[in-house]
Amino acid sequence: MTTPADFQTEENVLSNWVQHLDVDLLLRAGNLPAPLLNAAFLSLKPFQLMQRRYIRLLEPQVQERELEDFVRLENWVLDGPDQAAAALAQFVKWF
Fold first, then answer.
1. Lower CB count within 10 Å: N or C terminus of the chain?
2. How many domains does the chain fold into?
3. Per residue in 27-66, pLDDT tens?
4. CA-to-CA distance for 42 and 54, rounded, in angstroms?
């Protein structure tokens, strides 16, 4: 995952979201739930990050080992901890 260092980049979806983020409201949130953050990042490229990776599983030549690796990676990606809202607020203010 990479984050733009300049949140004033017009063509970057994440930059556009962050420009309109209410940092004070964010600070009152305490922690941001991991599922919320995952959903936000997946929505940046919904077809590529959600549908396309599952479509490959429907191909007849997919091996059992590939399926096991896929499930391990999915479990790892979706098992993130909640994040401190204060840390994200500070990051947004800096950039």
1. N
2. 1
3. 888 898 998 888 888 888 888 877 877 888 888 888 889 8
4. 13
**Ordered DSSP codes for 8-63:** T-TT-HHHHHHHT--HHHHHHT-EE-HHHHHHHHHTTSHIIIIIHHHHGGGSTT--
3 in a structural domain: no
Domain extent at residue 83: 13-94
| pLDDT, tens digit (0-9, with 9 covering 90-100), for 4-29 | 566 677 777 777 777 778 888 888 88
Is 17 in contact with 7 (CB distance < 8 Å)?
no
